[in-house]
Write a structure and sequence with these properties.
2 copies of one chain form a homodimer.
Chain A (H helix, E strand, L loop, with lengths): L4 E5 L6 E2 L3 E6 L10 H11 L3 E8 L6 E8 L3 E2 L2 E2 L6 E2 L6 E7 L2 E7 L4 E6 L3 E5 L3 E7 L5 E8 L4 E2 L1 H6 L3 E6 L2 E6 L7
Antiparallel strand pairs in A: 1-2, 3-4, 4-5, 5-14, 6-7, 8-15, 9-12, 9-14, 10-11, 10-13, 16-17
């Protein structure tokens, strides 16, 4: 039987306590996701293990609803801001909500038929992610971007499609401001 | 088709923008929920429409996940703090998460077999409400209690059982501190 619990979520550090799971993705883990892969290789060679983001979860198999935080480092690969891999949910009827706690960024979304939307991530904004929209978080600021996510436990993550073909848009630094550009490497399947 | 959207959630006022629905419960609406009904009647007679809490929602029928805020006034009926009606979900496999934004309170929970739990509500705490636990929020502080809730859209609210029989415990002011007491009016069905 599941019992109620108060779970501490630190909006600055993103720490979740108690948590059930956590993982970190480093630059080396994200080979293939950034446009400038030579630059990424160079950064990995010279800087070693660079954490791009960490995910801390509070998930109980018997609960329909899970939550947790994502903590994104500031940084860029060339002119492309640090970002998450991006994913659809396996269950196409499952959406998600991202509540930004600190930092600033953009949430890049793509529907199954190729429509793109961008939602600003900043403290106090709940980004509503409808079912069946792929979503990728991008840290466009100089500080950590920390957000809390809320999602059906059975949603499932499908990373393969975005990994293989990319997203139609990417977010780059143009003179110090984020700019949503066409992705030259996007491969229509 | 549903589109992504950034929804502003003000952690101080509880305002949600854009919102899809909102309602307010006044003291008069909450007749029968507080232990001291004579006191409640007197307050309604002398103070008129006293808002106890307001709920503002962002719900889309085609989205599995809804969210919103509850804004609770500070106050008491006799020694019993202002509280929400309390409810189970119609769907017994649906839980909820309450993220406190400002203020302080207690979340009183009761399982189907009569187990009671209390979770502290304060900024930075995500209260995890497992499926099939009745839950009632109680503002034990001098300020507004504002929290953001996240819940399956199809969970449904079942208020009748708590309204008829009460909860086994109630939270009263004992010398300026919240105290969880047995409810003398609790009626086992």
């Amino acid at each position: 039987m599941l019992f109620p619990e108060g779970v501490s979520v630190d909006g600055r550090t993103g720490e979740v306590s108690p948590a059930t799971d956590r993982y970190t993705k480093t630059l080396a883990d994200l080979r293939g996701f950034f446009r400038d892969s030579a630059k990424l290789d160079e950064m990995v060679a010279t800087q070693g293990e660079v954490p791009v983001y960490e995910v801390i979860g509070y998930r109980k198999a018997e609960s329909d609803l899970s939550f947790g935080t994502t903590i994104m480092s500031p940084g860029k690969v060339g002119d492309e801001y640090f970002m998450t891999r991006g994913h659809f949910h396996v269950r196409r009827d499952r959406g998600e909500v991202y509540y930004t706690q600190s930092g600033e960024g953009l949430l890049l979304l793509e529907s199954r038929d190729g429509d793109t939307r961008v939602v600003e991530m900043k403290p106090g904004i709940c980004a509503f992610i409808p079912p069946d929209w792929a979503h990728r978080s991008i840290n466009t600021g100089p500080e950590k971007l920390v957000f809390t996510w809320f999602c059906a436990t059975d949603a499932g993550h499908e990373y393969g499609e975005i990994q293989e073909r990319g997203m139609r848009k990417l977010v780059v630094d143009r003179g110090g401001e984020p700019f949503v550009a066409a992705n030259p490497n996007f491969a229509e399947r």
